[in-house]
Amino acid sequence: GENVEQHPSTLSVQEGDSAVIKCTYSDSASNYFPWYKQELGKGPQLIIDIRSNVGEKKDQRIAVTLNKTAKHFSLHITETQPEDSAVYFCAAITDTDKLIFGTGTRLQVFP
Amino acid sequence: GAGVSQSPSNKVTEKGKDVELRCDPISGHTALYWYRQSLGQGLEFLIYFQGNSAPDKSGLPSDRFSAERTGGSVSTLTIQRTQQEDSAVYLCASSLGTGRNSPLHFGNGTRLTVT
Questions:
Q1: Taking an 8 Å Cβ-Cβ cutoff, which residues of chain B contact chain A?
Q2: What is the rounded CA–CA span in Å between residue B14 and residue A63?
Q3: A40 at B interface, C-beta within 8 A
Q4: What is the SS3 assignment for A82?
Q5: Which of A96, B7, B30, B38 could form a disulfide with B88 if both were Cys (CB 3.0 to 4.6 A apart)?
């Protein structure tokens, strides 16, 4: 079945710097890759997603890239702000429509 | 509008007791998922309901875990004879269609502590 690995587990950046989180997946048939943000005490929320027919997608300060050949996808946050501090999860969908999540990255943005 | 509602928000139980966790999905959402999040860990898939299809139970960790979804709406996750390793946050999510064409909307979870 699908396996998703995520790195790093923790990431600390200065406000205004960029942050990059990387994920790999195992099932070459996966074709949908969402990213979720989880704030303390809350459930995760979708922030951006990408489908396998595109290599990059951008939404303001957030971008996601996908390399299907290498089975890698990454989240890029530019001009980080303290409110970006949270746990971020990548995910990949299986052929039976289950979302399999990575282990999460705790991002801390210091003012 | 109302989001996904989970109850209770916190549950403390003694080892060996049974617990029931409830999820009220967003009205009209056909898909419902349960995930488990252990302290500092990722989201572990447990079970997936889609419409009237047979649920995908492939993530349930043991036969002590079961879930049902009545009338295509409310879902209950039951853990029998709880063990300390069952302590975690149990998250429910619903989506309008399948996970690949509509986002999952998560509740805030039930924090289960087994003493």
A1: 4, 31, 33, 35, 41-45, 48, 50, 56, 58-59, 91, 93, 98-100, 103-104, 106-109
A2: 45
A3: no
A4: helix
A5: B38
Count other Cβ atoms within 10 Å, centred on residue B71. 5
End-to-end CA distance of chain B: 36
> What confidence tens digit (pLDDT) does each residue in B7-49 have?
999 999 999 999 999 999 999 999 999 999 997 678 999 999 9
Q: Looking at residue B71, what is its pLDDT?
A: 82
Q: Is the pLDDT score of A54 beyond 90?
A: no
Cross-chain Cβ contact A97/B107 below 8 Å: no
Do residues A40 and A49 make contact, with C-beta atoms less than 8 angstroms apart?
no
Q: What angle do CA B71, A97, B6 make, to 5 degrees?
A: 45
Within 8 A of B99 by CB-CB distance, chain A residues are 32, 93, 97-99
What's the mean pLDDT in B52-70?
94
Strands A86-93 and A105-110: antiparallel
CA B46 centroid distance within chain: 7
- Inter-chain contact B45–A44, Cβ cutoff 8 Å? no
Q: What pLDDT shows up at residue B42?
A: 86
A104, B106, B32, B20: CA torsion to nearest 10: 100
Query: Does position B1 have pLDDT exceeding 70, yes or no?
Result: no
